[in-house]
Amino acid sequence: MHSYDSYASPQGRIMLVADEAGLAGVYFEKQKHFPAQSKDWRHDPRNRVLAQAKRELEEYFAGRRRRFDVPLSPAGTAFQKSVWKAISTIGFGETISYGELARRAGVPRSARAAGAATGRNPIGIIVPCHRVVGADGSLTGYAGGLGRKKALLALERGERDLLSAA
Fold first, then answer.
1. Does the chain have fewer CB atoms within 10 Å around its N or its C terminus?
2. Among the listed residues 134, 166, 164, the one whose alpha carbon sits nearest the alpha carbon of residue 61
3. Cα dist. 74→37, 105, 139, 142 in Å?
4. How far apart are CA 15 and CA 24, in angstroms?
5. Where exactly are the structural domains of the chain?
6. pLDDT value at position 126?
7. DSSP code of 142?
8. Would you say 4 and 43 are in contact if contact means Cβ atoms under 8 Å apart?
9. What is the pLDDT of residues 81-130, one digit of tens each?
């Protein structure tokens, strides 16, 4: 059973999804890999995990939260989960390359595979895949769009005026 609700972020509407174990999804509306709702999904704004996720996202966008505590339950392969775990080690406001991410995930020289797993991250922002950049530092790939990636990095760097402009 999945519960879902929406959250109106400064970067657009976000759908939050939870299962019995924790937060299973954070998706910008119309982003790449946006999930289709199935029969076992129910709208539940009072779900405790979803309420916690909304509260923590609100604090993040207000500049008062640097790490998230909501329990996570992403669905994916063992390889994807190892990449997402490595993404979770990237510090607030920092960036790393896909090559470095592959190294941290224990699969050196697999930057493309790490990039593909990053693109399938179901828990954007909270598992901060926006902090992964190209080898030359350029902003590349983000399921929610490069404008949002730029805005999230600006927020984390204290450039609050860029958050709404992106």
1. N
2. 164
3. 16, 16, 24, 18
4. 11
5. 2-61, 78-165
6. 97
7. -
8. yes
9. 999 999 999 999 999 999 999 999 999 999 999 999 999 999 999 999 99
Report the 10 Å Cβ neighbour count for 45: 13
Most distant pair of Cα atoms in the chain: their distance: 44
3 is catalytic: no
- The domain made up of 2-61 has a fold known as Double Stranded RNA Binding Domain (3.30.160)
Joined tokens for residue 109: 């020289």
- Helix pair angle (78-87, 111-119), 10° resolution: 90
Contact, 102 vs 109, CB < 8 A? yes
pTM here? Answer: 0.90
Residue 5 pairs with which residues in a beta bridge? 16
The token pair at 70 is 């909501």
CATH topology of domain 78-165: Arc Repressor Mutant, subunit A (1.10.10)
Catalytic site residue from 129, 143, 151, 153:
129
- Is residue 68 within 8 Å of residue 25, measured between CB atoms? no
Whether 78-165 and 2-61 are alike in CATH topology: the answer is no
Distance CA 152, CA 146 (A): 10
